[in-house]
């Protein structure tokens, strides 16, 4: 050991110097020093807390806001709860209205309320296909009405029905052709040997397809019987695609 180290060792082992002041004052001074340091620490912590509160208050926008959440491990979680917030009232949708109407007079049920509805009828509308009317069947009719004056007879003849329009050179006769002239001719007998009639001329039933329904009354020839008696008048008319139409009537002259 060197002399220098030896001197320092001896100084450490030597008695401490006598106190220069009152021991109680030194202790009090140390206590005050420690208290000042602790007080300063409390002030520092209080100031830090104020700063933290100010920062937290700056981050809050309203009473419903919450402080930022940190992900510091093992750190206590602080939950700030504001006053309860009333949730908006939601009005439930109205139940569907179910209506059932029976016509012409029935009951209507709407939302559980039953009333009476008159004149309203609901139902399914179905489209209908129009069917063209059926064509009338071909037919010809004759009516005889004799007008007698002494022994002279005037025969009134009425022809009617639905017939085919004859053709001339492949074309239908004009639309204004009379119903009698649509025939292929007439023939009649007076019952005393005399006869008369008409001819259809150049008309043809070949290619006749057009139908015409009509009626016509005309006067046949006037005939005078030679002597009194009862005679049978016999009348025949011919139309395309029909058998001869025959009609007879009794005539009595004096």
TrEMBL record:
UniProt keywords, alphabetically: Membrane, Transmembrane, Transmembrane helix
Membrane spanning residue stretches: 40-60
Compositional bias per record (Low complexity), positions renumbered to this chain: 67-89, 97-131
Span list, region Disordered: 67-140
Protein name as catalogued: PKD domain-containing protein
Annotated source species: Kribbella pittospori
